[in-house]
Amino acid sequence: MSWRSVFFIGATVAILASWAWFLCEQGLDRADKWSSIIGVVISSIIGIIGIIVGLKSLRAARKTPSAGEGHAGTTYNISAGRDSYLAHEMHINKSSEKDDN
Question: Dihedrals φ, ψ of 69, to 5°?
């Protein structure tokens, strides 16, 4: 484990322990109110971050050019499967010449 991981885990444990101690000192009714407020704040922050990431992904997807129909001689490899095995594989060679067979 790197020192950053240890630091992050230690800081998280310290914050949660401090929060638990604070709630124990407040009593049941006030602890419930504090937890509700903090829950709304954290959920709002996560929601806003999610919206920002979604908008950035949408912009990036719009900037990426589409594959189109391909060019003569382009090879497409299509694979379908699950987990650790390959269920089906298909190779498509697209060229400008047509076979007369």
Answer: -90, -10
Between CA 76 and CA 67 the distance in angstroms is 11
Which residue, among 47, 101, 27, has the nearest Cα to 35 in the 3D structure? 27
Residues of the chain with pLDDT under 70: 64-101
The DSSP 8-state label assigned to residue 70 in this structure reads: -
Q: What is the pTM of this model?
A: 0.53
Map tokens 């060229």 to a residue: 95
Q: Quick count: other Cβ atoms within 10 Å of Cβ 98? A: 6
CB of 77 closer than 8 Å to CB of 91: yes
Burial class (CB in 10 A: 0-12, 13-18, 19+), 44: exposed
* Orientation of helix 28-63 relative to helix 3-26, angle to 10°: 140
For the chain, what are the domain ranges?
3-63
